[in-house]
Amino acid sequence: GNSVTQMEGPVTLSEEAFLTINCTYTATGYPSLFWYVQYPGEGLQLLLKATKADDKGSNKGFEATYRKETTSFHLEKGSVQVSDSAVYFCALRDWGAQKLVFGQGTRLTINP
Amino acid sequence: EAGVAQSPRYKIIEKRQSVAFWCNPISGHATLYWYQQILGQGPKLLIQFQNNGVVDDSQLPKDRFSAERLKGVDSTLKIQPAKLEDSAVYLCASSLTGVNYGYTFGSGTRLTVV
């Protein structure tokens, strides 16, 4: 079945550091890929998405590129801020079931 | 546009009691989902509706959980009787039909079973 694997957390960085959160997936067919963010006490919010190979999703300084050859969708940001502290979820949605399948989440903490 | 509305925001019940959660999706979104998110884990799909029909309920513990979506709009999720392991955040989401669309999530209901 379809699955998503994220790098183990928690991740702790200093403000203005470079961020990478790894995400790889297994899917039949050609899924769409998503990153969601969950701030403390809140629901999940869509951060960015990519719907086909080589697409780059971007939002709020975050970027991720759909790499079909490595089945990856790594999240990056050049300079993180304290306000980026949250849990980040990678997810896929396939053409068949059309349901979102989530990774286990990566907790990110940014220290001033 | 208005987001996905859920209520209540928090609920504490004793084991073996029953509880119900309500969700109002974004207008025009045909697909509605209920997810269970246990602390420290990613959300797990419980049930998926397309309009008022069930598309996927393979992960729903049907001996104690039930859900309905009358008239293809609002939905309720019920647990009866609750167990300690049901303590989690229950998230409702809605989306347009099509793989390129993400979901819009509500704020969730945090359930604590004591």
Q: Strand fraction band of chain A? A: over 45%
**Sheet/helix structural class of chain B:** mainly beta
Overall number of strands of chain B:
11
Q: Low-confidence runs of chain A (pLDDT<50, min 5 residues)?
A: none
Number of strands of chain A: 12
Which oligomeric state applies? heterodimer
Radius of gyration of chain A: 13 Å
Helix content of chain A: under 10%
Order of helices and strands of chain B: EEEEEEEEEEE
Estimate what percentage of residues of chain B fall within beta strands.
Answer: over 45%
Q: Biggest interface pair, residues each?
A: A-B, 25 and 26 residues
Outline of chain B: globular
Whole-number radius of gyration of chain B?
13 Å
The unreliable regions of chain B are: none
Termini distance of chain B?
Answer: 37 Å
* Largest sheet, strands/sense/barrel of chain A: 6 strands, mixed
**How would a textbook summarize the main sheet of chain B?**
7 strands, mixed
Q: How would the global form of chain A be characterised? A: globular
Mean pLDDT of chain B, nearest integer?
A: 93
- H/E element order of chain A: EEEEEEEEEEEE
Query: How confident overall, as mean pLDDT of chain A?
Result: 93
